[in-house]
Amino acid sequence: MDKLKFDEDSHSYTLIKESGEEISLISVTQLLKKHGLSPDYSNVDDEVLRLKSERGKVIHEEFEQYINHKQVGFTGEFEAFYEQCVCENILPSKSEFMVWNDEIAGTVDVAGLIKGQTFIGDFKTTATLHREAVAWQLSLYAYLMNETFDKYLCFHFPDEHTCKIVELKPIEREEIERLLDCERNSILYERKTFEIDTASCEKLIAVQSELKTLGERKKALEKQEEDLKTFLIKKFEETGLPFIDNDYFKITYVAPSTRTIIDSDRLKKEMPEIAKKFLKTSPVKAQVRISLKG
């Protein structure tokens, strides 16, 4: 059975095959740094980095001891994390476990349940949280585990008394495989981007803004129409007249009634096979959803 060995001093992973062959693996951290997908700390003072690293190591060890062995920690970060576990119904099940394939390896900070949903998470003690880098990190871990999780979380500690739970959108499997292909072929990975020219952006904003204004006006007019209809229904019922016909319009009174429809939700629940038999598939055109910010 293959085994993985981790050298803490060099932060390197070695895969020991069942045959005895040893293969050096690139770590998830190294992979992301190599392809420009993690923050660059080259301009930060070495002493500052060293102190932050030592602090981070202490905190990670505390979390590992608590999650794996139920030993309570003493730092402010631990207290903040513990409070979040209680408030958010977080049940961490394992911590600091290695995941790998024949190419890359990494160590997962934490995995477990949050409000009954599965999650994989990472602890970050940096002042600034680089969301995309953590999303890549967690997505690669999940890829190596060949699993998907309900939530991908970062437990961010911007100071020693605060624990923020940040949910991240996982990276698509297609992009992960493209990154690995780039690594195999010694090509730097470039994330696909989509740029829109300034003129198109301005036109899009103008159109969306006008549509929003018209939408709000439409809602106001519909409310006025509904109030008028309520008034007219009351008058028809008071007078008993079936309609009004004059030089401007004709308004016909429609008495209340009942209608019979199929309860599709109940049908799907109680007779799923019958409901499935009468499903109809229709083509749906490609579309975009636009949301203005601010």
Structure, explained:
Helices cover 43% and strands 21% of the residues. It has eight helices and ten strands. The protein has a domain of 182 residues: Lambda Exonuclease, Chain A, CATH 3.90.320. With 294 residues, the protein is α+β, with helices and mostly antiparallel strands. It is elongated. The strands form two sheets. Strands 1, 2, 3, 4, 5, 6, 7 and 8 form an eight-stranded mixed beta sheet that branches. A two-stranded antiparallel sheet has the order 9-10. The longest helix is centred in the C-terminal third of the chain and has 42 residues.
Structure summarized in a few sentences:
With 294 residues, the protein is α+β, with helices and mostly antiparallel strands. It contains 8 helices and 10 strands.
Task: List descriptors.
alpha+beta; eight-stranded mixed β-sheet; 294 residues; elongated; two-stranded antiparallel sheet; Lambda Exonuclease, Chain A; 43% helix
